[in-house]
């Protein structure tokens, strides 16, 4: 049987009911963090370093430099495609292999985020994000309030991490955001409340400022 005929036969067996007035009131969108998400964009904080995962750089194959934007009020972080010549931009992928992300050392930025969120410096925090288009720009948006937390415990004087994530306590009794909250959660205005962070320690720039 031809593939097209098989598909039509399957579709013929599917019963579809019209529900023009279906009401989403009371429904929650199940959090993506509760599923496997190796192909989803992720942003990781660990050991005074930040990095994105390979999925991020693969979705934007022509982008070498990015900026980090943070909204301290909404607790959102944006990775914004940029250019080497633009202030506070940094290389986010390996020069040797452009498909691999680069770990960025950033003690000051790391400390400011952990202070803002009240996070434990010993742990690793992983944010699941989405690539969206806002004001004609492609942006990765990450919610700092929804981290996967990989707890590190000291064993014989050495910190050892867990492969199993834990989640914020308030998630315990919920599957996720309501449909209305979910729709509004990714709406971003990059010109309202966001600050650009230079996350690399640039000695040359400091010397120029002093001069």
Q: What is the H-and-E element order?
A: HEEEHEEEEHEEEEEHEH
Helix share of residues? 10-25%
Unreliable spans are: 201-211
Report how far the terminal alpha carbons are from each other.
77 Å
Number of helices: 5
Return the structural class: alpha+beta
Approximate shape: globular
Largest sheet: 9 strands, antiparallel
Provide the number of structural domains.
Answer: 1
- Which range does the strand content fall in? 25-35%
Radius of gyration: 21 Å
Number of strands: 13
What is the residue-averaged pLDDT?
A: 77
Which descriptors would you attach to this protein?
211 residues, alpha+beta, two-stranded antiparallel sheet, 5 helices
Question: What does it look like?
Answer:
This protein is an alpha+beta fold. The protein has one domain (25-210). Helix content is 20%, strand content 33%. Strands 2, 3, 4, 5, 6, 7, 8, 9 and 13 form a nine-stranded antiparallel beta sheet that branches. Strand 2 (42-46) and strand 3 (49-52) form a beta hairpin. The longest helix is centred in the first third of the chain and has 11 residues, at 3-13.
Question: SSE layout and pairings?
Answer:
Layout: H1 3-13, E1 28-30, E2 42-46, E3 49-52, H2 54-59, E4 65-71, E5 76-82, E6 90-91, E7 104-105, H3 107-117, E8 124-134, E9 137-150, E10 152-155, E11 158-161, E12 176-178, H4 179-185, E13 195-197, H5 203-210
Short description:
With 211 residues, this protein is of the alpha+beta class.
């Amino acid at each position: 049987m031809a593939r097209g005929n098989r598909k039509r036969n399957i579709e013929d067996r599917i019963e579809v009911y019209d529900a023009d007035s279906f009401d989403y009131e009371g429904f929650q969108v199940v959090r993506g963090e509760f599923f496997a998400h190796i192909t989803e964009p992720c942003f990781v904080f660990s050991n005074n370093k930040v990095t994105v995962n390979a999925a991020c750089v693969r979705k934007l194959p022509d982008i070498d430099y990015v900026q980090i934007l943070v909204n301290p009020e909404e607790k959102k972080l944006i990775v914004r495609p940029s250019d080497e010549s633009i202030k506070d931009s940094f290389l986010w992928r390996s020069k040797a292999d452009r498909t691999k992300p680069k770990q960025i050392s950033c003690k000051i930025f790391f400390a400011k985020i952990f202070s803002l969120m009240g996070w434990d410096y010993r742990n690793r925090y992983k944010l699941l994000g989405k690539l969206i288009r806002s004001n004609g720009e492609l942006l990765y948006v990450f919610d700092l309030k929804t981290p996967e937390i990989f707890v590190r415990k000291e064993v014989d004087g050495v910190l050892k991490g867990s492969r199993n994530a834990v989640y914020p306590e308030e998630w315990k009794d919920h599957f996720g955001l309501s449909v209305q909250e979910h729709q509004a959660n990714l709406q971003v205005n990059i010109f309202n409340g966001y600050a650009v962070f230079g996350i690399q320690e640039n000695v040359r720039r400091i010397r120029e400022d002093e001069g």
